[in-house]
Amino acid sequence: MTPITVAIAVHNEENTIKKVIELWQKEPVDEILIISSGSTDNSNKIISRLAKQDKRIRLVTEPKKKGKPHAINKLLTLAKHNTIIMTDGDVYIEPGATRHLTQHLKNKNTGIVAGHPIPLNPKGIFGLWMQMSCDILHEKRTKNIELDVTGNLYAIKKGIIKKIPENTTLDDVYVAHETKKAGYKILYDPEAKVHVKGVKNLHDFITQKTRTRVGWHQLRHAENTKTARTPTGELTYISQTLKYLPTPTGIIAVPTYYAANAAAWLLAWWKYKTEKNYLKLWKPAKSTK
User: Fold this and answer.
1) H helices within 64-201, ranges in order?
2) Averaged over 209-216, what is the pLDDT?
3) CA–CA separation, 182 and 161 (whole Å)
4) Which end of the chain is more exposed for a tag (fewer CB within 10 A), N or C?
């Protein structure tokens, strides 16, 4: 089997990183490479303790947080193996995720394989918002309409991407865009499942969505691409969320979901035009920790 590196960018993940690593230890991977940037909690101690018990675990620490794009670039450079699985320090894979992702990379024309994010907390209004976001992504990727990846889980061949801009606020989509530019295919395997905790309040939702939508503005203008997501484009998949309307939560959650997204797009446009340091937009959603 082709040697595999799991690459994880970490910043203050003491509540989740132990379980994340233990799940990957059960997978057929050869290296678990972790970059901890500016962590001030117990993350580094937890990782170091696990590394003493498993030589596959390699921890690289940085005293200051330099942003996720910087960590991604470092992970892509330091990974020992040519098959790299990128993931986060606060998401939980299901067994078999490695096999589902990497089996497609045997095809020389395939550059990236995207995983399938599933909400950990699908209850309540904000839980339903997360569920709707995941439903829309799943629908798009299943139909090959907007085939990109989410940073929660994807596999990539080393060397396709040398470096991504360190001021981007949408690292995963930029990686997918560059992969397509290089002439490689992007595939989606819905069986490569990863459980993701959604936000629990409006502030975190707007903060998170604003950052990603600034990234779409960056991509559209920097690369002059028409494939970047737009506000009106999001309405295309409103039918995927209407099924939730008959429920007591859904009758409130569905219209407010689109209202909140519209607010995020407006704020993102303003931030894109006025913010000089886009890395300031990489603010943690505290309710997901």
Assistant:
1) 68-78, 97-102, 124-142, 171-181
2) 90
3) 9
4) N
